[in-house]
Amino acid sequence: xxxxxxxxxxxxxxxxxxxxxxxxxxxxxxxIYLDSANSSQKPKIVIDEISRFYETEFSNVGRxxxxxxxxxxxKFEETRDIVKSYINAKYREEIIFxxxxxxAINLVAxxxxxxxxxxxxxILVTELEHHSNYVPWHYLRKKKGAIIRFASVNEVGEIxxxxxxxxxxxxxxxxxxxHISNVTGTIMPIKKIxxxxxxxxxxxxxDGTQGAPHSVLNVQDLDCDFYAISCHKMYGPNGLxxxxxKKKWVDELPPYQGGGGMISEVKKDEISxxxxxxxxxxxxxxTAEVVAFAKSIKFIQDLGIKNIEKHExxxxxxxxxKLRKDNSVNIIGNPKNRASIMSFTIKGIHPHDIATILDxxxxxxxxxxxxxxxxxxxxxxxxxxxxxxxxxxxxEDIDVLCESINKCKKVFEI
Length: 414
Fold this sequence. Notes:
40% of the residues lie in helices and 16% in strands. The strands form five sheets. The chain has a seven-stranded mixed β-sheet with strand order 4-10-9-8-7-5-6, sandwiched between helices. The termini are far apart. It folds into two domains: 8-36 and 304-411, Aspartate Aminotransferase, domain 1, CATH 3.90.1150; 48-301, Type I PLP-dependent aspartate aminotransferase-like (Major domain) (Aspartate Aminotransferase, domain 2), CATH 3.40.640. It is α/β, with parallel strands linked by helices. The protein has helices spanning 8-13, 44-56, 67-87, 101-116, 135-144, 161-167, 190-199, 219-222, 247-252, 287-303, 305-324, 351-360, 373-379, 395-411, and strands at 25-26, 29-30, 32-33, 95-98, 122-126, 147-151, 172-178, 204-207, 226-230, 241-245, 263-266, 271-273, 329-331, 341-346, 363-364, 366-368, 384-388. It is globular, with a radius of gyration of 22 Å. The relative contact order is 0.16. The longest helix has 21 residues, at 67-87.
């Protein structure tokens, strides 16, 4: 008998078994989950770690000296070290736990904005931005009289370096942009943009909610000032985000929120704050989620982020090829460098109707403006349907998606 050698492709073929949610059926059909850009499913090792922590080690962190508190604090801080290593940060103090990428961006907009933004100063974003990387800057605009400029997306869904150059002035005080578009899947030329910003001494914030689950991250090589991560999109728990901030910023910026844990000493007439990053982590932290996120990173590392990227790109190319054969399907954007997102419309069918009919076949996609109304306005459409790929997807999932789209067209007689 010929010996079968183990390979990464074999592991991806069996990967759904690592996710308990795929044991169920949706309306009698196997679950085809194509909504990972919204939120990824959780592997069993993450779910088990949350249960194990609550069952055997739960305590608040950084406050008590009893055995459980020490264990919980050590586990919490171990995750900080794991994240530091995973993204290749230089200092552990550069890793700040937040309740999500949205809070991470708000933290920067508020602290940096309060200290360094004045009336007439400019913040440069793009037309691809999720609301989480626009609304916080809008608040700052209203509060401080700042100006927001938008780098425009072209007809294929890209924003090139020359478009950024065009909008930079002596008043530009921050450049904030997405790593990967959550609508078009466009992979931004982040290194080129950061190098441009550095030549002008402008800090850069990257919204990495779509980038972190699908890309190799090396923040020292990127040389960005801030990078926001959404853990629930990285096969991790909900309610947790990470802000990477260069040490110069965590040391210089003021606290974002006040409360327990982030102080050094409190008197009636004076308060001193804890060192970084603790001064940004006010109140009771989401300890179980932080501890479990270490298992999410282990899950990604065991598969290998480059292997994940290769697998997802294969599924993406297969999906794009199949959808392009259908003349009634209009794919949103055609960027040269694209990650695992396929947004589309079908003439005569509202995206919500598409998603509802697909759900009858157990196919989960997202429909709407995807918290990206500026881009949809630019495209002249109110909404789109979006299929997004994770490690657990296969070419067979894409086949079911396309069959279900055909069913949807028959219902609407298209």
